[in-house]
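B., you asked whether I could sanity-check this one before it goes into the benchmark set. Here's the sequence:
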Amino acid sequence: MVRAARALLSAVTRLLILADMADVMRLLSHLKIVEEALEAVKNATNEQDLANRFKEFGKEMVKLNYVAARRQQELKDPHCRDEMAAARGALKKNATMLYTASQAFLRHPDVAATRANRDYVFKQVQEAIAGISNAAQATSPTDENKGHTGIGELAAALNEFDNKIILDPMTFSEARFRPSLEERLESIISGAALMADSSCTRDDRRERIVAECNAVRQALQDLLSEYMNNVSYTNLVLASFL
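And here's what the prediction gave me:
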């Protein structure tokens, strides 16, 4: 029973982190693929190589546009939606210019103007990709890494909590372990609450996060009760031999 309660607590705790991040992480994954395809286009050595690499870049762009458009519809903050729309528009515009600028550079690599033009277009595409990423996570360029740090800290707290709930039922002490476990859990829930309060979190997901917060609190209490019951049973068995 202790093992089952512990597994349940671990499962519902993880849902707190996953509740509103699945779509965002999927979009970020697509952005990474597009960035890699963009770099491949930049490193093309001849026009045929450029054509092949740009074809792959175009395929990934189509996938990205679909995912980004869906995320744009999900964003509740009008400012976030506008930023996403602007970034998608800039990406589409500059991606169209990317091939001709790269082709001109390959034909005239010694002409400074063709290199400068190609580099400019590449920079515009990169900035558009960053704009999509920022809008999806409701961050600005100045705190772009803040969202990643927050997610990382929450995940680290979760992993630490998972380790802390693995206790020896035979030696469990409520006075020793209950306060620290409850404190750690509330820290995790506070991080999840920040996600729920985000203006870019959909109502249904906000409700799910709140529900999971309540569920995980109850799961911890159930786990602690199982530990206490196990200790009581052990003491009873030992007393019978005295």
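One thing to flag: The chain has a mean pLDDT of 78. Otherwise nothing jumped out at me.
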